Amino acid sequence: MRFHIWMIALLLMTIAGVSGCRKYAEAAKADPLLAAYDTEADWTDAQHVIPLSYQQAQGKRIFYQDCVWCHADATPAGPSNRSNLTPVSPLLNDGAALNAESDEFMQNIITLGGSAMGKSAMMPPYGKTLSAEEIRSVIAFTRAIAQPPYRPPARPGSQYSAK
């Protein structure tokens, strides 16, 4: 009889111990900062929100870190430096100015700087600061927010074009 009591006690302790180890995963809480780069408000219509792909979101992150100071009218810190530049740099969403440029030209001007591409010498080269993938991400973000909307060309431009 004592043996049965010991067995039952041992069985109950084992069940209690195992069931105590089972923890259920809590539902992940949505972090608003994680979603901060998933969209961009249209710069010309604040009611319109532009959804961004992963690559475009990475370009947005880089834009607000490095490019916003000269290619937007306002920055997270206040007014931009754009009005102090000669010539005034285009807004990053200025489709009228940037849609005509090929991806290759934009990659070169970001990598090599404005003076290397026959544009403003005030555009610094970012080829040693940003990777090629980061530069492509900035271009993808530029295309995503362009007004009027960007339409890819039927045939890509030359990598060495200098407009």
Give a quick summary of the entry.
With 163 residues, the chain is mostly helical. It contains 5 helices and 4 strands, in the order αββαββααα.
Distance between the termini: 97 Å
- Indicate the proportion of strand residues: 5-15%
* Assembly of the depicted chains: single chain
Largest sheet: 2 strands, antiparallel
Helix content: 40-55%
Number of E-type strands:
4
Strand and helix order = HEEHEEHHH
Form type: elongated
Major sheet: arrangement of strands? 1-2
Number of helices: 5
Rounded to an integer, what's the Rg over CA atoms?
27 Å
Task: Detail the poorly predicted runs.
Answer: none
Q: Estimate the mean pLDDT confidence.
A: 85
Indicate the structural class: mainly alpha
